Amino acid sequence: MDWQATLISLKIALLATVLNLPMGIAVGWLLTRMRGWWRHSLTALVMLPLVLPPVVSGFFLLYLFSPAYWIGSTLDALNIPVVFHLNGAVLASAVVSFPLIVRSVLNGLENLDVRYLEAAEAAGVSRREAFFRIVLPLVSPSLMVGSVLVFARSFGEFGATMVLAGNIPGKTQSLPLAIYTAIQSPNGWQRAWLLVGLACLISVSAIILSERLWKRPHASA
Amino acid sequence: MHQLDLHISQHIGSTVFQVSQQITLGSLGIWGPSGAGKSSFLKMIAGLHKPLSGSMTWNGTSWFQQWPLKWTPLRRRPVGFCFQDNRLFPHFSVDQQLQFFRQPDLDSSEYNKILETLGLDSLLSQKTSQLSGGEARRVSLACALVRKPELLILDEPFTGIDQKRVMQAIDLIQILQRNWQFGLLLASHHLNEILAFGQEIMLLDGSTQASFGNWANLLCQMQLPALHQCPIENVIWASRMAQGEPIVVENEHLFLGPAALPDAKCFKFLAQDVILARNKIENISVRNQIPGRISQILPAPWGHLLALDAGQTIWAIITEETQAHLHFEVGEMVYGLIKAMALQSVDDVY
Question: What are phi and psi of A90, to 5 degrees?
Answer without folding.
Answer: -65, -45
